[in-house]
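INFO  loader      accepted 1 record
INFO  loader      residues=360
INFO  predictor   begin
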Amino acid sequence: MDVQVNVSLGAHSELQDTWKPSKSNADKSLADYVRREYPALTKQEPGFYTVPSELPKPDDHDKGGLAEYAVYSRLKDYSESLGLSMILFCGSAYAGRKSEDGRYLPKEVDFVVFLSDTRRFKAFVLEVKGADDKVKKLSTTRRHACSQLQNHRDIFGYEFQLSKPVLDKIREHVVWPNLQSTEYCKSCQMKHTRFIRKPETCKERGSNSSKPIDEDEGYHMFDDTFNKEWLEELMKSEENCLTEEEWNSALHIFLVFSAGALYDEMDKTFVLLSKEQMRLLNLPNHPMGQPRLIYGPAGSGKTLLIIAKILELIKNGEVDESTQILYMCENEAVQQYVRRWRSGFYVQATSSGLPLHLHR
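INFO  predictor   done
INFO  writer      dumping tokens
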């Protein structure tokens, strides 16, 4: 399966014809993007960067969101304490197939973490679960988490062409920040390691179910094991180290579908947004009577930001017959630019009859 990666840095070519580079130029463009937006990573200096730029704290009733926020906060603290360079992809949404005859599956991965220090390059994928000891049966949640991680791995391998040797170095973990690594057994009146087959002498009902074969030691991380010492040992270990080339290649893939990447269906081209564009895109909605003014010179990426916002509104189901989109501009070239994107990019909008009005 030969995949041509086409990349355009939108903020620098807003009104130019879409650039369709060779793979070598695409790799260079992505490398330039990383150097510009995440300079500490290329300089191997300590730094903590997230995509999006920050993870807002959820309300107190969102147990899953609070668990993810706890993991996010810990990773930030550990990275800064250990002096690491870390880039954290939060809630990255994507779609892909697991095989040639498979269907496209929409997916969202909780966290993808890229780490580096002066000598080692590492990466791992985290699925976070907010269950606590009040949940009577964790087996369903546990199986679902394991299935999610396996689906991510299969899609990363087939759709995004990460080789098996590279995938084997990108570790996967289920994180349970509200659970301890041991659980008290009323029958034995002692603690057992969670999710590990209990002794045959244990008579507690349902305690002897075996773990899935794809779970190795450390696959599940808990409140008392997901700590700074674990991350420190991970970075000291010579195991599962990526080469700098492998690390950058995998990072570029995640940037394409996580770091404000717009996909032009007509030209099969990804356009990457800057961190500032992403910050503006993620601002909360404002009342119609209080318009938001975004100022920038020609070519700074204003139009692409508007296109990204329109797509977000459509994807979130905020556009219908009663809530429509009106785009107005006086520059005919800009209007044609938006119209070209509309004809290829907003398939879900036009096929659903959702109106996007363009006026000069």
